[in-house]
Amino acid sequence: MDACLNEGKTFNAKLVGFLFANTKDYPILHSSHILQNAVCQAIKWDVPGIVDYLQARMIKSPHLATERMVANELKDEKKAVANGYQYATDQFPIWVDKAKVADELFDPKGFPKRLRLCFFDIPNINDMSKESDEFFNVLADSDNLDLFSITITHIIINEAWSELRVFFFWFMMFPYMVLLISFTIWQTFVIVDIDH
After folding, report:
1. Using CA of residue 40, residue 41, residue 42, residue 46, what is the dihedral sign?
2. Which residue in 18, 138, 151, 179 could disulfide with 43, CB within 3.0 to 4.6 Å?
3. What are phi and psi of 59, to 5 degrees?
């Protein structure tokens, strides 16, 4: 796919769209880390089928789909909403122990509800890595609004915002507020004394 998405003679978005369309329904791809660059390039070049591919990669976990696991209450501190669905996220290895998932995501005292337990099997898309930066850069530059209507994009953006919110406040908003307040004090009190 990478060879088909370069800007040289081998560029072929239709072929990549065909490959995405025919691999989107595969079970969990253990080789999906190879596709990270192809996904970013497909978003950049607006390859047909990339939206469906991303949504389809929310794979229902076969080994977590037991009755004990799919009827639980999510922990309040993990809950969020995307496209009208309540969800909770965490990062786990693909074949994680069920008890670890239950400890991280579920409230044992809560009222059980039916759940769909899924893996998004394109790693490093939302972990603030170099791959994540590339993904968010091409997403920000994309004119394809359908990318922003799918649930997985909402979840990825919500996760990134939850991690960056503290940084944004302390390293961007707080210094700006200090500058604004100090300038206002200087302009209101100090400059008045100089003029007199």
Report:
1. positive
2. 138
3. -90, 130
Q: What SS3 class is residue 1?
A: coil
Per-residue pLDDT tens over the stretch 155-180 = 999 998 988 889 999 999 999 999 99
- CA 39 to each of CA 19, 46, 53, 89, 154: distance values in angstroms, whole numbers, following the listed order: 12, 10, 9, 21, 17
Residue-wise pLDDT for 23-68, tens only, equals 898 887 766 677 888 899 999 999 999 999 999 999 888 778 777 7
| CA distances, 36 to each of 49, 63, 86, 112, 137 (Å) | 16, 25, 27, 36, 13
Q: Is the pLDDT of residue 117 over 80?
A: yes
The runs of H, that is alpha helices, within the chain are: 13-23, 36-44, 50-56, 98-105, 130-141, 151-168, 174-185, 191-195
Indicate whether 142 and 188 sit together in one domain. yes
Domain range holding 182?
1-57+121-196
Cβ-contact 34, 125 below 8 angstroms: no
| Model pTM score | 0.80
d(CA 177, CA 185): 12
